[in-house]
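Complex 228.
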Amino acid sequence: MEYGIIESLKNLKDCILSVIYSGNENCILCNNELYSDKYICDYCMKSIMICRDKTEIGNVNGTLKFDCYSGAYYSGSMMELIVKLKYKSSFRSGHVIADYMYNSIKANKLEFDFITYVPMTKKDFKRRGFNQGEYLANILKEYTKKPVISCLSKIKSTKDQIGLSKRERWENIKGSFRFKNISLIKNKNVLIVDDVLTTGATAFYCALELKNNGANKITILTGAKSRV
Ligand SMILES: [Zn+2]
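Predicted structure with zinc ion bound:
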């Protein structure tokens, strides 16, 4: 009997995986037929603007800066992919985004000992069911063969950033993150992964928390960069 239940669960798992990873005959954005093994068609891909710039995210007096790279700009199909990943749990979208991020790692020759990601509060995690940054980090782990280590917690719920001024956005995020797993990051080079870079406040405070707790070099990599 018990064996039967285990078999049923295995079958269920296989069914779910086959739905998620089944043949991708149609573009996940426009539903056009695909003629390659990619998830999006050439037409949708054309509107993705690759981001080749490095952004320096620093504090107000400029004494501390972190380098930030992004796969593409937050516009066109990349914006659609991010929205689909975050709000519709489209894991295929996550794979396309991660491909652009990995291209940025290669193009900019980014070097790091391990990958971490911008955390969510427990409440937000429960509501969404997954952390999109963690999801992207785990795909990049497969590509780079570098481990993913969870070393930050989000301890403060933050207001929606929409409608806030730049200064308010920075104030809103300040003190939201707390470091964990200190022994694992001492003197290590860390790649922090997130979905979108907007003001840079989130990435900055995550990086600052790691820096203050002994990490060596910290680089930030996001799927997209907003032009705001
Ligand atoms: Zn398409």
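The chain has a mean pLDDT of 89.
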